[in-house]
Amino acid sequence: MQIENLAPHVQEIARALGDKLSEDEIAEELKKYVDVYRLSIPKAKETIVKRYGGEMKDFSVGFQRKLAEIRPNEPNVDFVAKVLSANDKEITSKGEKKRIIYGFVGDESTTLPYTAWETEGLQLSKGEVISVKGAYSREYQGRVQINFGNRVTIKKEDESTIGEIQVADGPPKIVTINDLREGMGYVQTKGRVLSVEDRDVMVKGEPKKIFSGVIADETGKVQFTAWSDFKVKQGDILRISKGTVKGWRGIPQLNFDDRAEVTKVKEKFPTIEELQKTGMSMISDIVSKGGAADVTIKGALIEVRDGSGLIMRCPECKRALQKSMCKVHGRVDGVPDLRIKAIVDDGSGAVSVVIGRELTESLADTTLDESMEKAKQAMNFDVVKDIIEERLMLKVVTLSGNVTSDDYGLSMIVRDARFGFDDVKQEVEKLLIDLEENR
After folding, report:
1. Which of 122-126, 291-295, 332-336 has the highest mean pLDDT?
2. What gap in Å lies between CA 131 and CA 104, rounded to an integer?
3. Angle in degrees, 0-180, between the axes of helices 3-17 and 23-31, rounded to the nearest 10
4. What is the third-level CATH fold of 72-161?
Protein backbone atom coordinates (compact mmCIF):
# COMPACT_ATOMS: atom_id res chain seq x y z
CA MET A 1 0.00 0.00 0.00
CA GLN A 2 1.42 3.39 -0.98
CA ILE A 3 1.90 5.93 1.83
CA GLU A 4 0.21 8.71 -0.13
CA ASN A 5 -2.94 6.61 -0.42
CA LEU A 6 -3.13 6.37 3.36
CA ALA A 7 -3.22 10.09 4.10
CA PRO A 8 -7.02 10.64 4.06
CA HIS A 9 -7.61 7.54 6.18
CA VAL A 10 -4.86 8.47 8.65
CA GLN A 11 -6.35 11.94 9.08
CA GLU A 12 -9.82 10.50 9.69
CA ILE A 13 -8.45 8.15 12.36
CA ALA A 14 -6.44 11.00 13.93
CA ARG A 15 -9.57 13.09 14.33
CA ALA A 16 -11.24 10.24 16.21
CA LEU A 17 -8.18 9.45 18.38
CA GLY A 18 -7.20 13.02 19.27
CA ASP A 19 -3.62 12.98 20.61
CA LYS A 20 -3.56 9.26 21.46
CA LEU A 21 -1.34 8.42 18.46
CA SER A 22 0.76 10.45 16.04
CA GLU A 23 -0.09 10.33 12.35
CA ASP A 24 3.11 8.35 11.71
CA GLU A 25 2.06 5.78 14.32
CA ILE A 26 -1.43 5.62 12.85
CA ALA A 27 0.02 5.04 9.37
CA GLU A 28 2.16 2.15 10.66
CA GLU A 29 -0.82 0.60 12.46
CA LEU A 30 -2.99 0.94 9.37
CA LYS A 31 -0.36 -0.63 7.12
CA LYS A 32 0.02 -3.55 9.55
CA TYR A 33 -3.71 -4.28 9.69
CA VAL A 34 -4.10 -4.02 5.91
CA ASP A 35 -0.84 -5.57 4.64
CA VAL A 36 -0.16 -8.18 7.35
CA TYR A 37 -3.58 -9.05 8.79
CA ARG A 38 -5.39 -8.48 5.47
CA LEU A 39 -8.25 -6.39 6.82
CA SER A 40 -10.10 -4.08 4.48
CA ILE A 41 -9.20 -0.41 4.95
CA PRO A 42 -12.60 0.44 6.51
CA LYS A 43 -12.44 -2.48 8.95
CA ALA A 44 -8.80 -1.66 9.80
CA LYS A 45 -9.74 1.97 10.52
CA GLU A 46 -12.61 0.96 12.78
CA THR A 47 -10.41 -1.58 14.62
CA ILE A 48 -7.67 1.01 15.31
CA VAL A 49 -10.16 3.56 16.63
CA LYS A 50 -11.73 0.98 18.96
CA ARG A 51 -8.38 -0.42 20.11
CA TYR A 52 -6.94 2.94 21.11
CA GLY A 53 -10.10 4.27 22.74
CA GLY A 54 -11.09 6.82 20.13
CA GLU A 55 -14.42 8.57 19.98
CA MET A 56 -16.57 6.41 17.73
CA LYS A 57 -19.15 9.19 17.49
CA ASP A 58 -16.47 11.30 15.78
CA PHE A 59 -15.61 8.49 13.40
CA SER A 60 -17.69 7.60 10.37
CA VAL A 61 -17.76 3.81 10.41
CA GLY A 62 -19.79 3.84 7.22
CA PHE A 63 -17.81 3.55 4.00
CA GLN A 64 -18.70 3.28 0.37
CA ARG A 65 -18.50 -0.25 -1.02
CA LYS A 66 -19.74 -2.46 -3.79
CA LEU A 67 -22.99 -4.23 -3.00
CA ALA A 68 -21.31 -7.65 -3.14
CA GLU A 69 -19.04 -6.60 -0.25
CA ILE A 70 -21.93 -5.88 2.13
CA ARG A 71 -22.36 -8.49 4.86
CA PRO A 72 -25.51 -9.35 6.83
CA ASN A 73 -26.31 -7.45 10.05
CA GLU A 74 -24.10 -4.43 9.42
CA PRO A 75 -25.41 -1.33 11.25
CA ASN A 76 -23.92 1.30 8.93
CA VAL A 77 -23.70 0.76 5.16
CA ASP A 78 -22.79 3.28 2.44
CA PHE A 79 -22.95 2.57 -1.30
CA VAL A 80 -23.80 3.92 -4.76
CA ALA A 81 -26.26 1.88 -6.85
CA LYS A 82 -28.90 2.05 -9.55
CA VAL A 83 -32.55 1.62 -8.59
CA LEU A 84 -33.77 -1.37 -10.59
CA SER A 85 -37.30 -1.34 -9.18
CA ALA A 86 -39.32 0.74 -6.72
CA ASN A 87 -42.67 -0.47 -5.42
CA ASP A 88 -44.98 1.31 -2.98
CA LYS A 89 -46.86 -0.71 -0.39
CA GLU A 90 -49.01 0.06 2.63
CA ILE A 91 -48.45 -2.12 5.69
CA THR A 92 -49.65 -2.20 9.29
CA SER A 93 -46.88 -1.76 11.86
CA LYS A 94 -47.58 -1.57 15.59
CA GLY A 95 -51.25 -1.06 14.86
CA GLU A 96 -50.64 1.83 12.48
CA LYS A 97 -50.65 1.95 8.70
CA LYS A 98 -47.49 3.17 7.02
CA ARG A 99 -46.02 3.38 3.53
CA ILE A 100 -42.87 1.52 2.56
CA ILE A 101 -40.91 1.33 -0.69
CA TYR A 102 -39.22 -1.89 -1.71
CA GLY A 103 -37.41 -3.30 -4.73
CA PHE A 104 -33.90 -4.03 -5.99
CA VAL A 105 -30.74 -1.93 -6.35
CA GLY A 106 -27.70 -2.97 -8.37
CA ASP A 107 -24.13 -2.08 -9.23
CA GLU A 108 -21.26 -3.68 -11.15
CA SER A 109 -20.90 -6.42 -8.51
CA THR A 110 -24.44 -7.72 -7.87
CA THR A 111 -28.03 -6.78 -7.09
CA LEU A 112 -29.68 -6.72 -3.66
CA PRO A 113 -33.23 -6.27 -2.38
CA TYR A 114 -33.99 -3.17 -0.33
CA THR A 115 -36.82 -1.83 1.82
CA ALA A 116 -37.28 1.83 2.79
CA TRP A 117 -39.10 1.94 6.13
CA GLU A 118 -39.10 5.73 6.51
CA THR A 119 -40.59 7.21 3.33
CA GLU A 120 -41.74 10.70 4.25
CA GLY A 121 -40.59 12.91 1.37
CA LEU A 122 -38.78 9.99 -0.26
CA GLN A 123 -39.25 9.30 -3.97
CA LEU A 124 -37.36 6.51 -5.71
CA SER A 125 -37.68 5.88 -9.43
CA LYS A 126 -36.53 2.98 -11.58
CA GLY A 127 -33.32 3.77 -13.45
CA GLU A 128 -31.98 6.54 -11.22
CA VAL A 129 -28.60 6.27 -9.54
CA ILE A 130 -28.47 7.02 -5.80
CA SER A 131 -25.75 7.35 -3.17
CA VAL A 132 -26.85 5.93 0.17
CA LYS A 133 -25.30 6.69 3.55
CA GLY A 134 -26.36 5.16 6.85
CA ALA A 135 -28.39 2.17 5.66
CA TYR A 136 -28.24 -1.16 7.49
CA SER A 137 -28.28 -4.79 6.36
CA ARG A 138 -30.15 -7.94 7.39
CA GLU A 139 -30.25 -11.52 6.13
CA TYR A 140 -33.16 -13.58 4.85
CA GLN A 141 -32.73 -17.18 3.65
CA GLY A 142 -29.04 -16.68 3.05
CA ARG A 143 -29.30 -13.41 1.14
CA VAL A 144 -28.30 -9.91 2.21
CA GLN A 145 -31.11 -7.34 2.31
CA ILE A 146 -30.64 -3.56 2.59
CA ASN A 147 -32.85 -1.46 4.83
CA PHE A 148 -33.32 2.32 4.81
CA GLY A 149 -34.23 3.50 8.31
CA ASN A 150 -34.54 6.89 9.97
CA ARG A 151 -30.79 7.58 9.85
CA VAL A 152 -30.36 7.09 6.11
CA THR A 153 -29.35 9.83 3.69
CA ILE A 154 -30.12 9.32 0.01
CA LYS A 155 -28.86 11.58 -2.82
CA LYS A 156 -29.40 11.29 -6.57
CA GLU A 157 -26.23 10.94 -8.63
CA ASP A 158 -25.28 11.13 -12.30
CA GLU A 159 -26.10 7.87 -14.13
CA SER A 160 -22.51 7.64 -15.42
CA THR A 161 -21.43 6.90 -11.82
CA ILE A 162 -22.51 3.27 -12.28
CA GLY A 163 -21.17 0.86 -14.90
CA GLU A 164 -22.90 -2.20 -16.29
CA ILE A 165 -25.19 -3.77 -13.70
CA GLN A 166 -24.49 -7.35 -12.64
CA VAL A 167 -28.03 -8.71 -12.37
CA ALA A 168 -28.26 -11.34 -9.64
CA ASP A 169 -31.62 -12.53 -10.92
CA GLY A 170 -30.27 -13.11 -14.42
CA PRO A 171 -28.77 -16.37 -15.73
CA PRO A 172 -26.69 -18.01 -13.00
CA LYS A 173 -22.93 -17.76 -13.29
CA ILE A 174 -21.31 -21.19 -13.77
CA VAL A 175 -18.47 -21.58 -11.26
CA THR A 176 -16.36 -24.19 -9.52
CA ILE A 177 -16.68 -24.50 -5.76
CA ASN A 178 -13.33 -22.76 -5.24
CA ASP A 179 -14.65 -19.75 -7.17
CA LEU A 180 -17.67 -19.21 -4.88
CA ARG A 181 -17.68 -15.74 -3.34
CA GLU A 182 -20.17 -14.08 -1.03
CA GLY A 183 -22.65 -11.84 -2.84
CA MET A 184 -22.12 -13.32 -6.33
CA GLY A 185 -25.81 -13.38 -7.16
CA TYR A 186 -27.22 -16.57 -8.66
CA VAL A 187 -24.63 -19.28 -9.33
CA GLN A 188 -24.53 -22.74 -10.85
CA THR A 189 -22.07 -25.28 -9.51
CA LYS A 190 -21.59 -29.03 -9.31
CA GLY A 191 -20.21 -31.31 -6.62
CA ARG A 192 -20.50 -34.49 -4.60
CA VAL A 193 -22.22 -34.39 -1.20
CA LEU A 194 -19.70 -35.37 1.48
CA SER A 195 -22.15 -35.05 4.38
CA VAL A 196 -25.72 -33.93 5.04
CA GLU A 197 -28.01 -33.68 8.07
CA ASP A 198 -31.37 -32.09 8.79
CA ARG A 199 -32.28 -29.74 11.63
CA ASP A 200 -35.25 -27.64 12.68
CA VAL A 201 -35.07 -23.84 12.77
CA MET A 202 -37.56 -21.03 13.31
CA VAL A 203 -38.27 -18.79 10.30
CA LYS A 204 -40.58 -15.82 10.95
CA GLY A 205 -41.94 -17.59 14.01
CA GLU A 206 -42.67 -20.83 12.16
CA PRO A 207 -40.73 -24.12 12.45
CA LYS A 208 -38.91 -25.17 9.29
CA LYS A 209 -36.68 -28.15 8.44
CA ILE A 210 -33.45 -27.32 6.63
CA PHE A 211 -30.65 -29.54 5.37
CA SER A 212 -26.98 -28.70 5.93
CA GLY A 213 -23.74 -30.37 4.94
CA VAL A 214 -20.60 -30.19 2.82
CA ILE A 215 -20.32 -30.49 -0.95
CA ALA A 216 -17.05 -30.70 -2.89
CA ASP A 217 -15.47 -30.84 -6.33
CA GLU A 218 -11.84 -31.14 -7.43
CA THR A 219 -11.18 -27.48 -6.54
CA GLY A 220 -12.44 -27.38 -2.95
CA LYS A 221 -15.21 -27.84 -0.40
CA VAL A 222 -18.08 -25.62 0.70
CA GLN A 223 -20.72 -25.85 3.40
CA PHE A 224 -24.28 -25.73 2.09
CA THR A 225 -27.79 -25.17 3.40
CA ALA A 226 -30.86 -26.37 1.49
CA TRP A 227 -34.01 -24.54 2.55
CA SER A 228 -36.24 -27.09 0.78
CA ASP A 229 -36.15 -30.88 0.83
CA PHE A 230 -34.38 -31.96 -2.36
CA LYS A 231 -33.94 -35.53 -1.02
CA VAL A 232 -30.18 -35.02 -0.89
CA LYS A 233 -28.11 -37.96 0.31
CA GLN A 234 -24.43 -38.46 1.09
CA GLY A 235 -22.57 -39.38 -2.08
CA ASP A 236 -25.02 -37.72 -4.48
CA ILE A 237 -23.53 -35.68 -7.34
CA LEU A 238 -25.58 -32.49 -7.60
CA ARG A 239 -25.85 -29.77 -10.20
CA ILE A 240 -27.21 -26.74 -8.35
CA SER A 241 -28.51 -23.83 -10.40
CA LYS A 242 -29.73 -20.52 -8.90
CA GLY A 243 -27.93 -21.04 -5.63
CA THR A 244 -26.69 -18.01 -3.67
CA VAL A 245 -23.55 -17.50 -1.61
CA LYS A 246 -23.45 -16.03 1.89
CA GLY A 247 -20.63 -16.00 4.38
CA TRP A 248 -20.07 -17.03 7.99
CA ARG A 249 -17.05 -15.25 9.49
CA GLY A 250 -15.71 -14.96 5.97
CA ILE A 251 -16.24 -18.60 4.94
CA PRO A 252 -18.40 -18.81 1.80
CA GLN A 253 -21.52 -20.93 2.21
CA LEU A 254 -23.83 -22.14 -0.56
CA ASN A 255 -27.58 -21.69 -0.06
CA PHE A 256 -30.46 -22.91 -2.23
CA ASP A 257 -34.23 -22.95 -1.78
CA ASP A 258 -37.32 -23.77 -3.83
CA ARG A 259 -36.27 -21.21 -6.45
CA ALA A 260 -33.19 -23.29 -7.24
CA GLU A 261 -32.90 -26.14 -9.72
CA VAL A 262 -31.19 -29.13 -8.10
CA THR A 263 -30.41 -32.10 -10.34
CA LYS A 264 -28.81 -35.40 -9.39
CA VAL A 265 -26.37 -36.35 -12.15
CA LYS A 266 -24.76 -39.64 -13.09
CA GLU A 267 -21.24 -39.15 -14.37
CA LYS A 268 -17.62 -39.92 -13.57
CA PHE A 269 -16.65 -37.87 -10.54
CA PRO A 270 -14.06 -38.14 -7.72
CA THR A 271 -15.09 -40.33 -4.79
CA ILE A 272 -15.83 -39.04 -1.29
CA GLU A 273 -12.45 -40.36 -0.14
CA GLU A 274 -10.63 -38.51 -2.92
CA LEU A 275 -12.50 -35.28 -2.27
CA GLN A 276 -11.80 -35.41 1.47
CA LYS A 277 -8.12 -34.86 0.72
CA THR A 278 -7.72 -31.10 0.70
CA GLY A 279 -5.39 -29.52 -1.84
CA MET A 280 -2.87 -26.76 -1.14
CA SER A 281 -4.25 -23.19 -1.20
CA MET A 282 -2.45 -19.89 -1.59
CA ILE A 283 -3.21 -17.47 1.23
CA SER A 284 -3.92 -14.74 -1.33
CA ASP A 285 -6.75 -16.88 -2.74
CA ILE A 286 -8.22 -17.31 0.74
CA VAL A 287 -7.89 -13.56 1.37
CA SER A 288 -9.78 -12.80 -1.84
CA LYS A 289 -12.67 -14.97 -0.63
CA GLY A 290 -12.51 -13.69 2.94
CA GLY A 291 -12.14 -17.20 4.39
CA ALA A 292 -12.37 -20.88 3.48
CA ALA A 293 -13.47 -24.22 4.88
CA ASP A 294 -11.07 -27.13 5.31
CA VAL A 295 -8.02 -25.83 3.44
CA THR A 296 -4.28 -26.54 3.58
CA ILE A 297 -1.62 -23.84 3.46
CA LYS A 298 2.18 -23.95 3.44
CA GLY A 299 4.32 -21.05 4.60
CA ALA A 300 6.99 -19.68 6.90
CA LEU A 301 6.15 -19.08 10.54
CA ILE A 302 7.30 -15.45 10.73
CA GLU A 303 6.03 -14.43 14.17
CA VAL A 304 5.21 -16.18 17.44
CA ARG A 305 2.60 -13.96 19.08
CA ASP A 306 1.86 -13.08 22.68
CA GLY A 307 -0.39 -15.68 24.27
CA SER A 308 1.75 -18.54 22.95
CA GLY A 309 3.37 -21.18 25.12
CA LEU A 310 2.17 -22.18 28.56
CA ILE A 311 -1.23 -20.75 29.49
CA MET A 312 -3.90 -21.41 32.10
CA ARG A 313 -7.52 -22.06 31.18
CA CYS A 314 -10.77 -21.74 33.07
CA PRO A 315 -11.91 -25.22 34.20
CA GLU A 316 -15.52 -24.26 33.39
CA CYS A 317 -15.49 -22.54 29.99
CA LYS A 318 -11.90 -23.30 28.84
CA ARG A 319 -11.16 -19.62 28.15
CA ALA A 320 -7.54 -18.52 28.61
CA LEU A 321 -7.09 -16.74 31.93
CA GLN A 322 -5.61 -13.30 32.42
CA LYS A 323 -3.87 -13.03 35.79
CA SER A 324 -5.92 -15.98 37.12
CA MET A 325 -9.14 -14.24 36.05
CA CYS A 326 -11.78 -15.64 33.68
CA LYS A 327 -13.96 -13.08 31.90
CA VAL A 328 -17.04 -15.17 32.71
CA HIS A 329 -16.30 -17.01 35.98
CA GLY A 330 -13.97 -14.58 37.74
CA ARG A 331 -10.98 -15.80 39.77
CA VAL A 332 -10.50 -19.56 39.32
CA ASP A 333 -7.81 -22.23 39.70
CA GLY A 334 -6.56 -22.55 36.14
CA VAL A 335 -5.86 -25.72 34.19
CA PRO A 336 -2.48 -25.68 32.33
CA ASP A 337 -2.42 -25.91 28.54
CA LEU A 338 -0.06 -25.35 25.61
CA ARG A 339 -0.75 -23.46 22.40
CA ILE A 340 0.88 -21.49 19.61
CA LYS A 341 -0.50 -18.23 18.24
CA ALA A 342 1.51 -17.23 15.19
CA ILE A 343 1.62 -15.54 11.81
CA VAL A 344 2.29 -17.72 8.75
CA ASP A 345 3.24 -16.15 5.40
CA ASP A 346 3.49 -17.99 2.08
CA GLY A 347 4.73 -15.03 0.03
CA SER A 348 1.28 -14.24 -1.33
CA GLY A 349 -0.29 -13.28 2.00
CA ALA A 350 -0.34 -13.86 5.74
CA VAL A 351 -2.76 -15.47 8.15
CA SER A 352 -2.95 -15.75 11.95
CA VAL A 353 -2.97 -19.34 13.20
CA VAL A 354 -3.89 -20.94 16.51
CA ILE A 355 -2.38 -24.37 17.20
CA GLY A 356 -3.61 -26.52 20.08
CA ARG A 357 -1.73 -28.57 22.66
CA GLU A 358 -1.12 -31.86 20.84
CA LEU A 359 0.13 -30.22 17.66
CA THR A 360 2.18 -27.72 19.67
CA GLU A 361 3.86 -30.60 21.51
CA SER A 362 4.67 -32.27 18.18
CA LEU A 363 6.00 -29.18 16.40
CA ALA A 364 7.97 -27.80 19.35
CA ASP A 365 9.23 -31.23 20.43
CA THR A 366 8.09 -30.79 24.01
CA THR A 367 5.29 -31.85 26.35
CA LEU A 368 3.01 -30.01 28.73
CA ASP A 369 4.77 -31.60 31.72
CA GLU A 370 8.21 -30.56 30.42
CA SER A 371 6.94 -27.04 29.82
CA MET A 372 5.49 -26.82 33.33
CA GLU A 373 8.83 -27.95 34.79
CA LYS A 374 10.81 -25.38 32.78
CA ALA A 375 8.41 -22.61 33.81
CA LYS A 376 8.78 -23.61 37.50
CA GLN A 377 12.58 -23.61 37.25
CA ALA A 378 12.62 -20.19 35.60
CA MET A 379 9.69 -18.95 37.73
CA ASN A 380 8.34 -17.46 34.51
CA PHE A 381 5.79 -18.77 32.00
CA ASP A 382 7.42 -16.72 29.23
CA VAL A 383 10.34 -19.14 29.04
CA VAL A 384 8.08 -21.64 27.22
CA LYS A 385 7.12 -19.06 24.56
CA ASP A 386 10.83 -18.31 24.11
CA ILE A 387 11.60 -22.01 23.55
CA ILE A 388 8.79 -22.34 20.99
CA GLU A 389 10.01 -19.21 19.21
CA GLU A 390 13.59 -20.50 19.08
CA ARG A 391 12.51 -23.87 17.67
CA LEU A 392 9.87 -22.72 15.18
CA MET A 393 10.73 -19.21 14.02
CA LEU A 394 11.08 -19.09 10.20
CA LYS A 395 10.39 -22.81 9.88
CA VAL A 396 8.17 -23.83 6.97
CA VAL A 397 4.97 -25.53 8.13
CA THR A 398 2.02 -27.14 6.38
CA LEU A 399 -1.26 -26.44 8.18
CA SER A 400 -4.87 -27.53 7.62
CA GLY A 401 -8.13 -26.18 9.03
CA ASN A 402 -10.89 -23.61 8.61
CA VAL A 403 -9.89 -20.01 7.92
CA THR A 404 -12.35 -17.48 9.34
CA SER A 405 -12.36 -13.67 9.47
CA ASP A 406 -13.20 -11.23 12.24
CA ASP A 407 -12.31 -7.67 13.24
CA TYR A 408 -8.64 -8.62 13.36
CA GLY A 409 -8.35 -10.33 9.98
CA LEU A 410 -8.04 -13.95 8.87
CA SER A 411 -7.40 -16.71 11.38
CA MET A 412 -6.96 -20.48 11.08
CA ILE A 413 -7.86 -22.87 13.87
CA VAL A 414 -5.34 -25.56 12.96
CA ARG A 415 -6.61 -29.13 12.71
CA ASP A 416 -3.39 -30.69 11.39
CA ALA A 417 0.19 -29.41 11.31
CA ARG A 418 3.58 -30.65 10.19
CA PHE A 419 6.86 -29.28 8.96
CA GLY A 420 6.63 -28.50 5.29
CA PHE A 421 9.91 -29.90 3.95
CA ASP A 422 12.79 -32.22 4.68
CA ASP A 423 15.32 -29.56 3.64
CA VAL A 424 13.87 -26.82 5.82
CA LYS A 425 16.77 -24.34 5.54
CA GLN A 426 16.83 -24.32 1.73
CA GLU A 427 13.07 -23.97 1.45
CA VAL A 428 12.91 -21.17 4.05
CA GLU A 429 15.54 -19.19 2.16
CA LYS A 430 13.62 -19.66 -1.10
CA LEU A 431 10.29 -18.72 0.53
CA LEU A 432 11.75 -15.58 2.15
CA ILE A 433 13.20 -14.47 -1.18
CA ASP A 434 9.78 -14.97 -2.81
CA LEU A 435 8.15 -13.14 0.09
CA GLU A 436 10.41 -10.07 -0.36
CA GLU A 437 9.86 -10.05 -4.13
CA ASN A 438 6.09 -10.03 -3.62
CA ARG A 439 6.09 -7.18 -1.08
Report:
1. 332-336
2. 14
3. 120
4. OB fold (Dihydrolipoamide Acetyltransferase, E2P) (2.40.50)
